[in-house]
Write a structure and sequence with these properties.
By secondary structure, the chain is an alpha+beta fold. It folds into 2 domains: 16-119 and 285-330, Gcn5-related N-acetyltransferase (GNAT) (Aminopeptidase); 120-282, Aminopeptidase (3-Layer(aba) Sandwich). The protein has 8 helices and 15 strands. It has helices at 78-92, 107-110, 159-167, 181-187, 239-255, 300-305, 332-335, 338-354, and strands at 16-17, 30-35, 41-54, 57-69, 97-102, 115-116, 120-125, 151-153, 175-178, 203-210, 213-223, 226-234, 260-263, 279-282, 287-292. The strands form 2 sheets. Strands 1, 2, 3, 4, 5, 6, 9 and 15 form an 8-stranded mixed β-sheet that branches. Strands 8-10-11-12-13-7-14 form a 7-stranded mixed β-sheet. Strand 10 (203-210) and strand 11 (213-223) form a beta hairpin. The protein starts with 15 loop residues before the first strand and ends in an 8-residue tail after the last helix.
């Protein structure tokens, strides 16, 4: 006879967290495992901790990501129970806000107390029937990056300059994430002797220097038929150099045969000018959702103000949407058979052989 499982006051099954992860939630990139009443691993998620600003106030944020339930345990609300249990502990440890990205819409997480946060996504085609009036002549040249003085690909030693540009850019935004140094270090690949060049799909960070040093940066990533503009930043008064980065991205996308440039925050042009025909709409997927964990925090004002949700490269758990078919984080015997792992490895090696050269600013 199956052991009857206790439920909490919300009708969710009672879970306990793995002992190693049951302490203070101050670490980053932690895997939290939920165990059922019979001590079986049933679900997991990744938790990241960071700070941010919400309507001028510094807040501690618990980032939820990579929610996974073992296939044979689905339908028993273990995923919902794990999220609720982790958030109860985060609230106890002094966190103000929880964030997650959902690629399954809002309904599931709305039932867990989350609410969608406002934001937009933007897209443009890289080729127009006729040249756009504001397109610089060098965009159609044989080697477009040479038309941007100071343009180069970022190096590991540039991380401090990029952090300064990011932290000083759009400081008046209603909602911003503050990355930890650990998160920043993950953006730039470590310089290793003999390391092969980045493959298609990895991030490229472009920078523009002037006499005073780095003035602007942009982070891009090739994704299917599109070049993703992940984020950008600049010194005060550096909007024109961000426009140069945008045009360099358009030229590079054309060179690589990519038909679209898209992202959450494409540049709007200096002094309110129309930089390029860009279509903008409310962000649909992945959907950023938040839940207040502190009585003094309210997301109502943020929604009413129409303030944009934070854009750019996500902290570690945000890189995967919060739910859906994911690779199992559990030990290999629970995740896949050896034959399955061999097939995946073969597909991975094949995709790397066929990848296009990495994006470069030089």
């Amino acid at each position: 006879m199956m052991k009857r499982e206790r439920s909490d006051r919300n009708g969710l099954p009672a879970l306990r967290l793995r002992d190693a992860d049951a302490g203070e939630m101050g670490e980053q990139g932690r895997l939290i495992v939920g165990r059922s009443a019979d001590d079986a691993m049933v679900a997991s998620l990744e938790l990241d901790c960071c700070e941010g600003t919400l309507l001028g106030r510094v807040v501690r944020i618990a980032g939820i990501g990579a929610l996974f339930t073992l296939p044979e345990q689905r339908g028993r609300r273990y995923g919902a129970a794990l999220v609720a249990t982790v958030l109860d502990r985060a609230r106890h440890d002094g966190f103000h806000l929880a964030l997650l990205f959902s690629d399954i819409g809002a309904d599931y997480f709305t039932r867990l107390g989350f609410t969608p946060l406002p934001g937009e996504e933007a897209s443009c085609v890289t080729e127009l029937p006729a040249p756009w009036p504001g397109e610089p002549p060098w965009v159609g040249g044989a080697d477009p990056p040479l038309g941007v003085p100071g343009l180069r690909t970022a190096e590991p030693g540039d991380i401090d300059a990029i952090v300064r540009l990011h932290e000083g850019f759009e400081t008046s935004a209603a909602f911003r994430l503050m990355r930890s140094r650990r998160s920043w270090d993950q953006l730039l690949p470590r310089a290793e002797a003999g390391r092969p060049p980045p493959q298609s799909g990895e991030r490229a960070i472009w920078m523009i220097d002037d006499r005073a040093g780095p003035v602007a940066y942009a982070i891009l990533q090739e994704q299917g038929a599109a070049l993703r503009w992940l984020e950008h930043g600049a010194r005060p008064g550096g909007d024109g150099r961000v426009s140069d980065l945008f045009w360099a991205a358009i030229a590079t996308a054309r060179k690589h045969g990519l038909s679209r440039l898209e992202g959450w925050s494409l540049p709007r042009g200096a002094a309110g000018e129309t930089l390029y025909p860009i279509a903008r709409r409310a962000r649909q997927s992945p959907l950023l959702m938040g839940r207040a964990l502190h009585p003094d925090i309210s997301l109502t004002g943020l929604r009413d103000a129409g303030a944009a949700a934070p854009d750019g490269v996500r902290p570690r758990p945000f890189r995967e949407a919060a739910c859906g078919p994911r690779r199992s984080p559990f030990p290999a015997p629970l995740a896949a058979s050896p034959a399955t792992r061999r097939r995946r490895s073969c597909r991975h090696r094949s995709s790397r052989r066929c990848a296009r050269p990495a994006l470069s600013a030089t």
